[in-house]
């Protein structure tokens, strides 16, 4: 499938989280916007983005927005990753890459902002700190939250 473009309706899905709860992105405005973070544990740039996504999750907890991480990694590896990086956001298991393929994600990590009506924002594939920062600031401010001081240089852990 081709990558989503801004304004495209996003594919609906249901996935099991590492807490064994089923989470669904299937109805507009049910729980608010989502920032989908596609990653692979063994991929260095994905690991470098974990602290950044955790800060996003903490910031978004002040609103209806949430970070949902999506991975094909095993349940055990995800539990270990969440513990190692002290992650509080939902990690969803896409063991056959069905959601990743439906979203046209070819390069990890990837970031897909999804608004309340289930339309995509700018899809970012591969890690570029400046582009990810801009996309996250836009997402946060769209929710009426203050994005000042959202990220600092130490949030990025290159070479992790």
Strands of the widest sheet, in order across it, are 2-1-5-4-3-6-7
| Order of secondary-structure elements | EEEHEHEHEEH
Distance between the termini: 31 Å
Oligomer, anyone?
Answer: single chain
Percentage beta strand: 15-25%
Shape annotation: globular
Determine the number of helices (DSSP H or I, runs of at least 4 residues).
4
What is this entry, summarized?
It contains 4 helices and 7 strands. It is α/β, with parallel strands linked by helices and 160 residues long. The radius of gyration is 14 Å and the shape is globular.
List keywords for this structure.
alpha/beta, seven-stranded mixed sheet, 4 helices, 160 residues
Question: Could you please describe the fold and organization of this structure?
Answer:
It is a single chain. With 160 residues, the protein is of the alpha/beta class. It is 29% helix and 19% strand. It has four helices and seven strands. The protein has helices at residues 44-60, 75-84, 98-102, 129-142; strands at residues 13-17, 22-25, 34-38, 66-71, 90-93, 110-114, 124-125. A seven-stranded mixed sheet has the order 2-1-5-4-3-6-7, with helices on one face. Strand 1 (13-17) and strand 2 (22-25) form a beta hairpin. The longest helix is centred in the N-terminal third of the chain and has 17 residues, at 44-60. The mean pLDDT is 87.
